[in-house]
Amino acid sequence: MTTETTKKIHFDYQRGNIQEETLIHLYKSMLKPRMIEEKMLILLRQGKISKWFSGIGQEAISVGITSILDKEEYILPMHRNLGVFTSREIPLYRLFSQWQGKANGFTKGRDRSFHFGTQEFNIVGMISHLGPQFGVAAGIGLANKLKGNNQVCAVFTGEGGTSEGDIHEALNVASVWQLPVLFCIENNGYGLSTPTSEQYNCEHLADRGKGYGMESHIIEGNNILEVYTKVKSLVDDMRVNPRPVLLEFQTFRMRGHEEASGTKYVPQDLMDEWEAKDPLINFENYLISENIINDDFIEDLKVEIKAEIDGNLDLAFNEEVIKADLTTELYDVFQNHIYQEVKPNKETENLRLIDAISQGLKQAMERHDNTVIMGQDIAEYGGVFKITEGFLDAFGKERVRNTPICESAIVSAAMGLSISGFKAIMEMQFSDFATSGFNPIVNYLAKSHYRWNQNADVVVRMPCGAGVGAGPFHSQTNEAWFTHTPGLKVVYPAFPYDAKGLIASAIEDPNPVMYFEHKALYRSIRQEVPTDYYTIEIGKAAILKEGNDVTIITYGAGVHWALDTLENNSHISADLIDLRSLAPLDTEAIYASVKKTGKAIIMQEDAMFGGIASDICSMIMENCFEQLDAPVKRVASLDTPIPFAANLEEQYLSKGKFESSLLDLLSY
Ligand SMILES: Cc1ncc(C[n+]2csc(CCOP(=O)(O)OP(=O)(O)O)c2C)c(N)n1
Known about the structure:
Helices cover 41% and strands 15% of the residues. The chain is of the alpha/beta class.
């Protein structure tokens, strides 16, 4: 029963010309997540669910924004936005099932709480790391702008998340590119236990809009009519005048960060102050005072929602526990892709590695008109290595995009483009700089298909490698960081012919591919290369030489060092395997050769410890032990950073150690 004392109205509600029907809809849409949450708190206490992030007191923001956007417009919620999911009318049993790790949820039990997305409802759920969501939203905004579909997308963060670099990068990119994204900050006073005074040092987070050259507004987040009216007029305008808008919603987190952590650190008077501003109760009282609803209406509605919650909970609780199936687990890491061979034409031309990559890239972009390439200085300037020279004229500024120095936001934007049906290519200026985009590569691109069936149709081009006297930050060959991450394909060609066919296949593949390009080979290696478009299957090694005494396994620059060594030692009869792809790895080719020769040596350019040579070595031991005539040998560079001076670099590299190691092995 509603009593006189609870009928206080804190807000000066401005109804404007909002229809009664909409007012009731907004009320119902806030009541439902509130009632679900109250039920969840009971279940948590009963030990029936494991964790809960509460958005109680913040419902007006999720509900207001979701009510304004069309169903086909993407929303990227965070961990306190249950109202987004309920307002998109996801059947509750599916949500409950998701939270219980069951099959009717959205992640086949692979991720918890709100860490999921669904194309069916145009929702892109968070990863725990928070910040990349803004960059993914920028990518979706870019896709909408390129499609010219007049759609807006909305993304959420708390004020704590705004301290992350990813958020800053994404806002900058969105502003430079004028992307139609509603960036929503829910400023709820605390980030876990950290108060705003220890989180940022400006008066309002919305003030930051000025620094980004972006329109921004502060909105009373607990006043549903203010949220609805202001956001609606902005969204209506953004659809015709695409631009990013930064919104700071003032609100408060009424419960602990997650239930178990409590709110002891929050002063009681602050709690009391915000309790009086409860978005649901105030709006309810307002609607009663306007004679739009009454106590009976509320009671009936609560009975109806309670029945819906209970019925759906029964469904979820009665659903059987998910079955652990090894094949499915392994299979779902990647989107199924059936390789389509495009055979090379007969006509060839003599190309350097760099030209072959450029030509392959260009022909792939001609073939797939949904490809967008992004990178620093790649448009007018043609990229620092000139691989994209002429691309701007061929494909235009929309598809060939210079980016600010924002690796994290651009990797994330590539993910957003993929979500929206594009193929995205990113040129990392140097593979060393992948560190600045590492989080979205290993957590977003790599894990999305396994988590919620969303592929990342992204190729990250990685100019890498030493031998060019460029020191510790422009010489690394960091493939092992990525071969260790399930969900990424890793390709590393050594020849122009392979480079051209593999870049085409990388772009055709709907999964994320890290494509390594060795800088020292760019202009030093030439080959006859077919003039037209063709593909080479990812995951297949090339046997460059056949012999009986030893198997040499290598890739990238190592292939050329091994070839030189064999040329200087013509008495050695060796199988030389150029891996070409590191993930997936052609184990069949490796084992067949080692079983024949009985000896194996693996050379990598990277430092030794934790590199791919160590894994291949173990795999050979495990699978070919009976046929081995000597311990498997690894040759790698020093376990130091890469030095600059030529003689130090020479000492560092595995190149100089290969010949003696090979001869040692042969004489074992
Ligand atoms: C990169 C990263 N650092 C730390 C965390 C741990 N963490 C999760 S949520 C959170 C607080 C977030 O605060 P805010 O963005 O204000 O959102 P709120 O929880 O208040 O809604 C923290 C520290 C994380 N998930 N990811």
